[in-house]
Amino acid sequence: MGDDAAVRPSIHLNLFAFGCGHHAAAWRAPDSSVDRLGDIAYWEELARTAERGGLDAIFLADGQSVGLDGIDRGPRWFLEPITTLAALARATERIGLVTTVSSTFWTPFHAARQLAGLDHISGGRAGVNVVTSMTDEEARNHSMPALPGHAERYGRAEEFVSALTALWDSWPRSAILADADGAYVDTEQLRPVNHRGEWFDVAGPLNVPQPPQGRPVLFQAGASGPGRDLAARYAEGVYAVAWDLESARAYREDVRDRARRLGRDPDDVVVMPGLVTFVGATEAEARERQRALNELLPVEDSLRQLAFFVGTDTSGWELDAPVPPLPPLEEFTGPQGRYATVLRIIESKRPTVRELLGYLAAGGGHATFVGTPESVADEIERWVDAGAADGFNLMPPALPQGIEDFVDHVVPILQERGRFRRGYAGRTLRSHLAADVVPAG
Amino acid sequence: MGDDAAVRPSIHLNLFAFGCGHHAAAWRAPDSSVDRLGDIAYWEELARTAERGGLDAIFLADGQSVGLDGIDRGPRWFLEPITTLAALARATERIGLVTTVSSTFWTPFHAARQLAGLDHISGGRAGVNVVTSMTDEEARNHSMPALPGHAERYGRAEEFVSALTALWDSWPRSAILADADGAYVDTEQLRPVNHRGEWFDVAGPLNVPQPPQGRPVLFQAGASGPGRDLAARYAEGVYAVAWDLESARAYREDVRDRARRLGRDPDDVVVMPGLVTFVGATEAEARERQRALNELLPVEDSLRQLAFFVGTDTSGWELDAPVPPLPPLEEFTGPQGRYATVLRIIESKRPTVRELLGYLAAGGGHATFVGTPESVADEIERWVDAGAADGFNLMPPALPQGIEDFVDHVVPILQERGRFRRGYAGRTLRSHLAADVVPAG
């Protein structure tokens, strides 16, 4: 730890809890949690482990369909995230609780209410990752024949977020007088929303008084231009996808530039790339853990997942031949971030199809650190110090083991080096994201 | 306790938890819970008290607007009910958790998911009271200029419930194979929903596997013809409004007849009128409790509430004169049940305006029993034995005191008489509603 440790930024860590873990074959392992996915005690255990490690938040992704093409190959969704986080609020005391909400399929009044409710229930720990969804299958569960186009989805997302914030501001705490001889509420202080937009009309005010955080914390995960703009305009936390330090730095700089141009302090936007870690007592043990999970992966499954990522029929690809040429990013109409990652892996590693599948098997192209607790901590510091990240959204390949390993072995090293909090300084999610100083705890 | 005790039906009891209690002036009392409405621990305390009493369920009502005309006169909504019940699921072990969902403002996929999630989280204790909402103010929070008409709302409600049940049936538990060497799900067992209706298109299947109860329990509270039909067709529990035994019996018989005509066993529909109780060690103490709360009530508030119930400007009414004539039920376009009750009170009691306000102040015309634990228990038995109710939806005038009084003093008498369970026989809400036999516990 050098003399400049005091001025080096503290690191932010979220747990992205997903199924049996982010590795596509995690559920096939003999000790997997596949039978516990509907058991709230499993999720409580993950949240408590993350809280024991002092992580900023536990984050749940979401989707609006069963995912017919893939559900035979492994679990995706099980419990519903908002109700799950409401339960987790009472199993934890300090850790942030971040849900995903699709602005394409939710309306602002329901979302604003449930998120404000979650913020009350958790004492100020609610966050929401606003997404615009990805598939026609999801649209067909919500009275739409197909997914609206990218521009339409992002237009709706902008309006959705704007209505959310107006609703959260509409019933200030000070409006509650609770005067036993007079009024319960000073109606003069209620602020009508009167949002009339292209997608939603919302009169307001919200029927939930302003929650502890005022506004629950907004997260964004968009990789496209409009997604980055939305992040730069509103988000306090950004979940990024980056395979390597250079692309992470480019992404973070771009989001910070956009925020700066919108008049925001870029330091108010905490950028956290997804991070898959395989941690072992030795380098060899870590690699063995990775290999053991990869071993469980049926190759044709991975090939089909790849077909989804690249929007191309991969069934004729030869496993041990180089990856065939793919169209440039500009011609791809699906989720941009993941496709860009595939292109970057191909460009940087020139892999065979089989090798590419290996890179993608855990986390679909997110940064992957494999090694001892020290080497993983080193790499985390290196990314943060290089301006590539403000921290990471941890995507353990197998749960609960992956987060236990990280909390028990990597976190203490980061604490020792003065880069991560020992215990929480504040009680709200926003206070965790803001903390520049690492409390001694 | 007579020899026929063994064949007399067991009694069902729900706690309808609302704000500081159902009396309009409850929040003005010196010991009121007005400062705790946003504190989940308050709701946990209510749920635990109800569970200590062995009640079937705790029920939360809901509305989709702040209620601008009235919010100065007392609290209405605060926390959001579904997230609240998800938290309560982890503070309790056996009691049912019933939320309200508006079919006018919710879409089936979101509702089906969150209710299935709540059923998983609670281990099979979720229920939902489907309502069609009541005000234009609510509509304006959901991109509608005004509330749709009665027929349209009930058409939508029918379709909503039908889509909910199809979604809940769409991913049978047996479809999860979790075969480490094969498939996670047998996709052949997934049942597409393919609902194409007037109000919703839902492809399905749901992305939550079938919850412990299969289908969360459906409740209904409609008083109108279409509301009763909906109850008769789908509901396993009905929350009724009845001022006196005769109207309760007529309502219950009508719902049972409709169920019978639809081919259902009427005993599968548990009808629970709302019940306000003031319990005291003596008759005089009970009456004093009622008087003390009535004393806190600003008269002009009650008069304005009455105007809402009867759809008439009451501002010119003289407090100590008889209630002016009101139009017959057929001409009233608002909520039918409450209006019918007002007409019935007027017809049976010929009250002055002030007296009518007194009857309505707690619970808005629901049955009100005032007396000792013995006399309240007697009256409960009398209604059930007369076929006027299968039990009651308890609406304590002030909380938490009202439910503590009931659980500590009335429940033991009903248990002693063999009319109410001592401890739960089952673990699901449906098992509580089904129980004909009172377990010795």
Describe this structure in words.
2 copies of one chain form a homodimer. In chain A, the strands form 2 sheets. Chain A has an 8-stranded parallel barrel with strand order 1-2-3-4-7-8-9-11, surrounded by 8 helices. A two-stranded antiparallel ribbon of chain A has the order 5-6. With 441 residues, the first copy, chain A, is of the alpha/beta class. The radius of gyration of chain A is 22 Å and the shape is globular. Chain A has a single domain, classed as TIM Barrel. In chain A, helix 3 links the parallel strand 3 and strand 4. In chain A, helix 2 packs parallel to helix 3 and helix 3 crosses helix 5. Chain A is built from 14 helices and 11 strands. At the A-B interface, helix 2, helix 3 and strand 6 of A face helix 2, helix 3 and strand 6 of B. Chains A, B: Keywords: Flavoprotein, FMN, Monooxygenase, Oxidoreductase.
